[in-house]
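This part of the workshop introduces the protein records we will be handling. An example says more than a description, so a record of this kind follows.
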Amino acid sequence: MAHTFEDLVQLEQAAVQAHQQYRSPDVDDPDVARQAWVDAAAAFQAAVTDYAAAEGKSRVEVEMAVKKAVRHPEPADA
């Protein structure tokens, strides 16, 4: 499946959210929450690898660009 940059952003957001849920003191089942985090992170990593290969870009550069977009988004009016 071909991914877009926006797909990668959404996958990273899902991984971040899963990690936050795992770290939450209110988590019901830490093992289930941890596995959800691991699965979300693995999906992101696989998609980054595929995207970088398809675009002929450095995998590390793609990952860093996505993480920057998720953690430090541009203001909506920019």
The mean pLDDT is 94. Residues 20 and 27 are 10 Å apart (CA to CA).
